[in-house]
Amino acid sequence: MASVSLESVSKNFGTHTVIQGVDLEINDGEFVVFVGPSGCGKSTLLRIVAGLVAASKGAVKIGGDDVTDVPASKRGVAFVFQSYALYPHMSVARNIGFALETLGMAKDAISQKVSTVARMLKVDHLMERRPRELSGGQRQRVAIGRALVRQPEIFLFDEPLSNLDSDLRMEMRMEIAKLHDVLKTTMIYVTHDQSEAMTLADRIVVLNHGRIEQVGTPQQLYHTPDNRFVAGFIGSPRMNFLAVSPQTGANAGRIAGPGNLSMAMVASNPTGPIAEIGVRPEGLRLVSEADGRIACTLERVEDLGHEHFGYCRITEDTVWVVRLASAPSSDQIGKTVGLDFADSAVFAFAGDGKRVLLKGAPEAGAEAREP
Known about the structure:
Blueprint: E1 4-13, E2 16-26, E3 31-35, H1 42-50, E4 57-62, E5 65-66, E6 77-80, H2 92-102, H3 107-120, H4 136-148, E7 154-158, H5 166-183, E8 186-191, H6 194-200, E9 203-208, E10 211-216, H7 218-223, H8 228-233, E11 240-243, E12 245-246, E13 254-257, E14 261-264, E15 274-279, E16 285-287, E17 294-303, E18 308-315, E19 318-324, E20 336-340, E21 346-350, E22 355-356
Parallel strand pairs: 3-8, 3-9, 6-7, 7-8
Antiparallel strand pairs: 1-2, 1-4, 4-5, 9-10, 11-15, 12-13, 13-14, 15-21, 16-20, 17-18, 17-20, 18-19, 21-22
Helix pairs in contact: 2-3, 2-4
């Protein structure tokens, strides 16, 4: 096992900067997930750690040793690719053990290691099959086994579940989490799926345009985001946002917005005037127009069996999603209703996207508050 340290790491492809001065410390045995939208640089950053891509600037350290110029084969890392990258002409057993063959390990020792790993990943009954005879989930297990058999100090996963259907994704997510619990090995995992990040990570690194937006536990990012980007990216369905205007004069300390919104919003930090507010779907209640803080039109309701989501149009360009305990009556669809929420459910943001802390709200990065 080993820690990972990135010190002012940047990467340029020609004139295009993909990674911009990233500083990050990953602890020994920690499960860290890089998450962000497509093109944010998360896979490039993972490959820089692996040694598959050279950093343009900065240093990469593994276990305290500077490996910036050390080739990938000497870094003690194992990489699990999105595409599985199995050898089609080899059996499952040879695919898992081939890296040990190239190291010149004795056949008996290879067989023992391969058998141990295959049993752990529940592919021991598939040892003589070829990759074309396996399901997607089985292929991914074999790819993980090929990495596991080398007993690396660090596991690197690059969107390993993106080719699987939803049921297999959930199953393999559980398998990877259990693998980390057993091995206690440092793992870095890349995904664009924030649900995967929330369920797997000890800490999440949120990336955007090659920069780190925030690093924290899943609960810290969900309950105390640093900025609008993190607030909107973490959570499903995403946070609802609404542009507002600070009021002056006799109404100083209040904000106004569409849907007849008017409420007191007292900031506890000098980030800037409030330009936007956000409320998560579970922080909203569907009420009558007279009882709501915001008036809107209930356009449709999604019935997922165990929960319901209402889609409420506040303006031509703004629709808020509310999580409902039960389905509203059909005669409410298309009618004007109200949305109500507690002051503690409101997130506020300045014009530059930074979070504006409100009186009584926890500091950004603090431990989770009660919803």
